[in-house]
Amino acid sequence: MTSLSRRSLLAGAIALGSQPVLAGDKIQLVMFDRVGCPWCAKWDEEVGGVYHKTWEGERAPLRRLSMHPPYPKDLSFITKIIYSPTFVLVRGRQEIGRIVGYPGEAHFYVQLSQLLEKAGV
Asked: Can you give the pTM of this predicted structure?
């Protein structure tokens, strides 16, 4: 990317009142679960089938992993996953925040919205 196009991208983002999201700054919601987790099953039932179609799901695509390490190299910075499910909002290689447990659909989306706001989305 040329410096001129980078400046244009930055100027456009400032004009829209947001930070540009560069390729290395991809936002994703990582769900750590385990086999037999009843709260994970409840999340699947209430949210899992439609999450990717929601405003939040479009901005923070879901990536699902076992809560038991080792984690993929790009997520090796995430530590101390104790409860399932645990949802970790990440941008690039930085943790923005977590939702520990599944508090029900309405509360899940409230907490996720707060994390997305914290991330500047």
From this structure: 0.79
